[in-house]
Write a structure and sequence with these properties.
This protein is an alpha/beta fold. The chain folds into two domains: 1-102 and 267-359, Isopropylmalate Dehydrogenase, CATH 3.40.718.10; 112-147 and 155-261, Isopropylmalate Dehydrogenase (3-Layer(aba) Sandwich). The chain has helices at residues 14-32, 45-51, 57-64, 77-80, 89-99, 123-126, 163-179, 194-206, 220-229, 241-255, 292-304, 308-323, 339-352, and strands spanning 2-10, 35-40, 68-73, 104-110, 130-136, 146-148, 155-157, 183-188, 214-219, 236-239, 264-266, 271-273. Strands 2-1-3-12-11-4-5-10-8-9 form a ten-stranded mixed sheet, with helices on both faces. A hairpin with a 4-residue loop joins strand 11 (264-266) and strand 12 (271-273). Helix 1 crosses helix 11 (292-304), helix 11 runs antiparallel to helix 12 and helix 12 crosses helix 13 (339-352). The longest helix is centred in the first third of the chain and has 19 residues, at 14-32. The two termini are 23 Å apart. Bound molecules: 3-isopropylmalic acid (IPM) and manganese (II) ion. Manganese (II) ion binds at residues 245, 249.
């Protein structure tokens, strides 16, 4: 089959990890006789240096003309500590999500048996943990009206949600729960926030359509604690934009490294696949960044294309690399492989393995 993939490496370690995903996708294309066309474009600080905007129109156009977007990372310390900066790299990613209508960000989290001791959490508490976080991605406080008073002494970020915005992601989360352990946890702050009460009301009434799914509720503060105490209680978590951002970074501790966590951002028309981690500028160019989050994001892209065998093969290759300790420094400190070497290994497994995956 033929697919056009927009590749947006972005900033920091973005380019080096994305390069490994492209390598893996090329190996998949070759093995399964697909035609993947890669269209590279600038985003974030990398785009600002040339175009003075973090999301040039040309980049958006390439994304809209592609079947999916593979996104690297965004952010540069030179903009982080300048509160007066009018434009920031991160705005490129936010605008991209908005323009492409990517309202649902799907973030799977699991404990790998082999890496169980990499997590600072107790092995017995996390062994077998397996959940997926559905984070609303184009609403809430991230996108509400923003202002700073003229004297600079007060500022405001508005948080709004509509029933429609809640329903469209809630449907996806319920459907995912139906295919998993049939449990959905809505995380909110309904004891304080009006928007959270709307989430509860909307999701509760939608639950009637999904009678096989058990719905429960947790306040975000409690959910943050439960994530550490007993993450095995979670199956599907549904939550608004900012709570999902925070909770998923916290959840990454279960897997042993944030460098392993992939995500899919889905809309009605477009889709984008991005690791949940940031641009890790301190590691840029050092060959120590873990490419697996990006590569597993590429696997989610293959699933999205309907290429399930191909996606399984990528995931199997990653499992093999973890089993054999072919890992970057975040996971294998003593005898680590470089970003590129991990990519090369996965490429060779994909090209050479005889038995196609069965699980
Ligand atoms: C993420 C990131 C982004 C977010 C930043 C870079 C704008 O932290 O994808 O989780 O907050 O959504
Ligand atoms: Mn984040």
């Amino acid at each position: 089959m033929k697919f056009t993939i927009a590749v947006l490496p972005g900033d920091g370690i973005g380019p080096e990890i994305t390069q490994q995903s492209v390598k893996v996708l090329k190996a998949i294309a070759e093995r399964f006789e697909h035609e993947f066309k890669f269209e590279e474009a600038l985003v974030g600080a990398a785009a600002m240096d040339l175009f003075e905007t973090p999301l040039p129109d040309s980049t958006l156009k390439i994304c809209k003309n592609s079947d999916a977007v593979l996104f690297g990372a965004i952010g540069d310390p030179k903009y982080d500590n300048d509160p007066s900066a009018k434009v920031r790299p991160e705005q490129g990613l936010l605008k991209l999500r908005k323009e492409l209508g990517l309202f649902a960000n799907i973030r799977p989290v699991k404990a790998y048996d082999k890496l169980i001791n990499k997590s600072p959490l107790k092995a017995e508490n996390i062994q077998g943990a397996n959940m997926v976080i559905f984070r609303e991605l184009t609403g809430g406080i991230y996108f509400g009206e923003k202002s700073t008073s003229e004297d600079g002494k007060s500022a405001s970020d508005l948080c709004t949600y509509s029933v429609e915005e809640i329903e469209r992601i809630a449907h996806l989360a319920f459907q995912a729960a139906q295919k998993r352990s049939k449990k959905l946890t809505l995380v909110d702050k309904a004891n304080v926030l009006e928007t959270s009460r709307l989430w509860r009301k909307t999701v509760t009434s939608l639950a009637k359509k999904y009678e096989d799914v058990t719905l429960d509720f947790l306040f975000i503060d409690n959910a943050a604690m439960q994530m550490i105490l007993n993450p095995k209680q979670f199956d599907v978590i549904l939550t608004e934009n900012m709570f999902g951002d925070i909770l998923s970074d916290e959840a990454s501790v279960i897997g042993g490294s944030i460098g392993l966590l992939e995500s899919a951002s889905i809309g009605n028309k477009y889709s984008m696949f991005e690791p949940i981690h940031g641009s890790y500028p301190q590691a840029k160019g050092k060959g120590i960044a873990n490419p697996v989050a990006s590569i597993l994001s590429a696997a989610m892209m293959l699933d999205h294309f309907g290429l399930t065998e191909e996606a399984k093969l990528v995931r199997n290759a990653v499992e093999i690399s973890i089993q054999l300790n072919v890992c970057t420094k975040d996971i294998n400190n003593d005898n680590h492989y470089s970003t590129e070497k991990v990519g090369d290994f996965l490429e060779s497994v994909i090209s050479d393995i005889d038995d196609l995956p069965i699980n």
